[in-house]
Amino acid sequence: MKCIIVDDEPIARKGVKKLVDQISQLELLDSFNSAEAASEYIQTTDVDLIFLDIQMPGINGIEFARSIPKHTLIIFTTAYSEYALDSYEVDAIDYLVKPIDPAKFRKAVDKAITYHSLLLEEDKKNVENVEDECIFVKSDRRFFKVNLKDILFIEGLKDYVIIQMEEQRLITRMNVKNIHDLLPKNIFLRINRSYIVNRNHIDSFDNNDVFIKKHEIAIGNSYRDAFFGELMKNR
């Protein structure tokens, strides 16, 4: 699981990092001293789990938790026990009071790993039989056969993705990252946090946008180099 630490105290960040480093299933991507900095980071980077302090200057941890994607899990790490009830309102995995007991930390992480696996399994149930040329997508209680060559692009919308074809669009409950993982990467290119495009349907592009039929899709800053690198690889 890819995780980040958000805490305004350097010593606290160091302490949580030490605990994270002891768990092989966790990959620490970065640490932040404010919710604002972390919020900007997760706009362009997929994060599975956040170790989050509550009392911080600016946006506090509870406010920040209300704004993150549903598939990003939270374990609160705080010196104040009185916020425990508030943590339930944002569906936190656990609430750890500093100084953090290593055994309780491990138990909280195990719970997060289990829940994360369930989320992944739920997503994959909505896309079955990924083959070389087609997928079966669950939408409106039915499975629809979708030829990969017919997909123009895929758009993420909160907890759903929209599969856009020329004459049809299907909406299914799934995470953008997970559907991208299932598709051939040499054809389906992720160009920002919310969009995956089929390179074979790109009519034109410039430094900022991709044009497919009547659709104009922005290229995210953190995806630009990979996008242009993949497009130019076989030229």
Question: Helices, strands, pairings?
Answer:
Blueprint: E1 2-6, H1 10-21, E2 27-32, H2 35-42, E3 49-52, H3 61-65, E4 73-78, H4 84-89, E5 94-97, H5 102-125, E6 127-128, E7 134-139, E8 142-147, E9 151-157, E10 160-165, E11 169-173, H6 176-182, E12 188-190, E13 195-198, E14 204-205, E15 209-212, E16 215-218, H7 224-232
Parallel strand pairs: 1-2, 1-3, 3-4, 4-5
Antiparallel strand pairs: 6-7, 7-8, 9-10, 9-13, 10-11, 12-13, 14-15, 15-16
Describe the structure.
The longest helix is centred in the middle third of the chain and has 24 residues, at 102-125. Strand 4 (73-78), helix 4 (84-89) and strand 5 (94-97) form a beta-alpha-beta unit. The protein is an alpha/beta fold and 235 residues long. It has 2 domains: 2-124, Response regulator (Rossmann fold, 3-Layer(aba) Sandwich); 128-232, OB fold (Dihydrolipoamide Acetyltransferase, E2P) (Beta Barrel). It has helices at residues 10-21, 35-42, 61-65, 84-89, 102-125, 176-182, 224-232; strands at 2-6, 27-32, 49-52, 73-78, 94-97, 127-128, 134-139, 142-147, 151-157, 160-165, 169-173, 188-190, 195-198, 204-205, 209-212, 215-218. The protein has 7 helices and 16 strands.
